[in-house]
Amino acid sequence: MDAVVKSLSARVTEVAADKPKIEKPTREEAEAAVRTLIRWAGDDPEREGLRDTPRRVAKAYGQLFAGYGEDAREILNKVFEEVEGYGDMVLVRDIPFHAHCEHHMVPFMGKAHVAYYPSAGVVGLSKLARVVDVFARRLQTQETMTAQIAEVIDEVLRPRGVAVMVDAEHMCMTMRGVQKPGASTLTTQFTGVFRQDPAEQARFFTLLRAGRS
Ligand SMILES: Nc1nc2c(ncn2[C@@H]2O[C@H](COP(=O)(O)OP(=O)(O)OP(=O)(O)O)[C@@H](O)[C@H]2O)c(=O)[nH]1
Ligand SMILES: [Zn+2]
């Protein structure tokens, strides 16, 4: 791709960082909390099989909640200005993700579909998937995550419109509580032309189905 790379850092610094600011506990405090939860579950944190578990859980949290240390705006901070006149919809569908619900701290997982109409250049396709992960790797509701993905793309790229659809299964509805495995939740967020024009939303849904039986 014969593309000119343009930095959007000036625009990026205009907007507030989206990383939540909290005072983190020490690693020892985190591990002690895991030991407490093991006891709350009914087991003995000192038995051999569980002795290393607090350390592993604290480490796993680093990956599962890596989104707190990332800024989606920085990920989108690079556009390819010239893509041989392309101005139509770009849709990356079936982006798999794992998140944790903020109510029960158990996983919900599924696929995100992200579309936008470029205005001044396009962004690397992988960046759209990275943006999904930034918000998925936090304590979330599906609605908030869907809105955050659409909003940050809209804010940084200033496209003619953004459409995001998230399709997920919540383990808090499967493994506990109401116990309804297989129930899926769909959420959408539209900006710009997708919000204003129902025909554009219809086109987004048509493209989502394209090539599928
Ligand atoms: N809107 C929304 N609700 C969610 C999401 N993830 C989990 N929930 C819901 O959060 C609600 C929490 O309800 P509460 O009554 O406070 O908690 P609870 O007693 O554990 O509820 P049950 O899950 O019905 O047993 C449940 O209805 C969950 O299904 C989400 O991403 N979005
Ligand atoms: Zn939940």
From TrEMBL:
UniProtKB keywords: GTP-binding, Hydrolase, Metal-binding, Nucleotide-binding, One-carbon metabolism, Zinc
Pathway recorded for this protein: Cofactor biosynthesis; 7,8-dihydroneopterin triphosphate biosynthesis; 7,8-dihydroneopterin triphosphate from GTP: step 1/1
Annotated GO CC locations: cytoplasm
Entry's Gene Ontology molecular function annotations: GTP binding; GTP cyclohydrolase I activity; zinc ion binding
Catalytic activity: GTP + H2O = 7,8-dihydroneopterin 3'-triphosphate + formate + H(+)
BP-aspect Gene Ontology terms: one-carbon metabolic process; tetrahydrobiopterin biosynthetic process; tetrahydrofolate biosynthetic process
Binding-site residues for Zn(2+), renumbered to this chain: C101, H104, C172
Pfam families cross-referenced by the UniProt entry: GTP_cyclohydroI
Gene3D superfamilies for the chain: 1.10.286.10, 3.30.1130.10
Domain GTP cyclohydrolase I per the UniProt entry, residue ranges: 31-208
PANTHER family: GTP CYCLOHYDROLASE 1, GTP CYCLOHYDROLASE I
Protein's name in the database: GTP cyclohydrolase 1
Organism: Salinarimonas soli
Encoding gene (name): folE
